[in-house]
Amino acid sequence: MEPSKITVPHVVKMKAEGQKIVALTAYDYSMAALLDEAGVDLILVGDSGAMVFAGHDTTLPLTVDEAVYHCKAVRRGVKRALLVGDMPFLSYQVSPEEALTNAGRFFKEAGVDAVKIEGGSPVCATVKRMVEAGMPVMGHLGLTPQSIRRLGGYSVQARSEENARQLAHDAAALEEAGAFSLVLEKIPSPLGEKVSRSLRIPTIGIGAGPHCDGQILVSYDMLGLFERFHPRFVRRYAELAVTVKEACAAYARDVREGGFPSDKESF
Asked: What is the spatial distance between Cα 89 and Cα 124, in angstroms, rounded to a whole number?
């Protein structure tokens, strides 16, 4: 039987039971409510909102205040799904104690069920500190958008044998530190499968192949609302940008020609 509320232990149990985890992003109440009603298991208030919602070129400008605001809005629309807040750039990298303080805002002010941070072994002490304080943490390896300046672009990561070994090592270290799940982004499919099979905790793939324990996409990408670029790993299930523009053009035409409002739409 489906639980009335997805919890962290339930997400971990889904892997053990062979159930695929369905995840999408949301940044506002209306979209969150639609995703939740559609049966999405995990909703991430991603720092991707800096790009698809706020129009920045990278995720780096997002602030903690902005992230918490979006989490608050999404929380109001989510009843069933596990709600995860993405911690912004420099909100957790300075020190474990500062990370703990910033993460606390997501739980206290926005009511998230978990937070997500990027990075491998260097952030394990931070993950451990937050988990010890009762804050579930999701990790993120592979293409880590907050490191885009160092990476130099959005190319596939961990292609070399050395880098693949390092990613596998980091995944094991994050699990040991207490992370309850991992996002694996834009890595070769065989590596996604290898890491997923090696861990007790679930992996959530985005451009990491079909063998991860779940999949996540940016909702604006999946719905065809964001047209600036179309990553290879995104399958568009709708072309809502086209629909919205057609609807707005029809509305503009009706207003200009006097067809709206009609007598039925007037008092």
From this structure: 16
| Catalytically annotated residue among 37, 185, 257, 265 | 185
CB-based contacts of 239, cutoff 8 Å, min separation 6: 224
Query: What is the Cα–Cα distance from 63 to 29, expressed in whole angstroms?
Result: 19
What pLDDT does 119 receive?
A: 98
**Quick one: average pLDDT of 154-182?**
97
Average pLDDT over residues 83-88: 98
- Torsion sign across C-alpha atoms 243, 244, 250, 254: positive
**pTM for the predicted model, two decimal places:** 0.96
Is residue 181 within 8 Å of residue 11, measured between CB atoms?
yes
Instruction: Report CA torsion sign: 151, 135, 111, 105.
Output: negative
Q: Which two tokens stand for residue 158?
A: 């961990």
**192 and 95 within one domain:** yes
Residue type, 81: A
Q: Note whether 23 and 144 are same-domain residues.
A: yes
Cα–Cα separations (whole angstroms), residue 164 to 83, 120, 187, 192, 215: 30, 12, 9, 10, 20
DSSP letter for each residue of 19-85: PPEEEEE--SHHHHHHHHHTT-SEEEE-TTHHHHTT--SSSTT--HHHHHHHHHHHHHH-SSSEEEE
- Domain with 125 in it: 8-236
Active site residue 176: no
14 neighbors 41 (Cβ within 8 angstroms): yes
Domains contained in the chain, number:
2
Query: Each residue of 194-240: pLDDT tens digit?
Result: 999 999 999 999 999 999 999 999 999 999 999 988 889 999 999 99
Residue 71 within any structural domain of the chain: yes
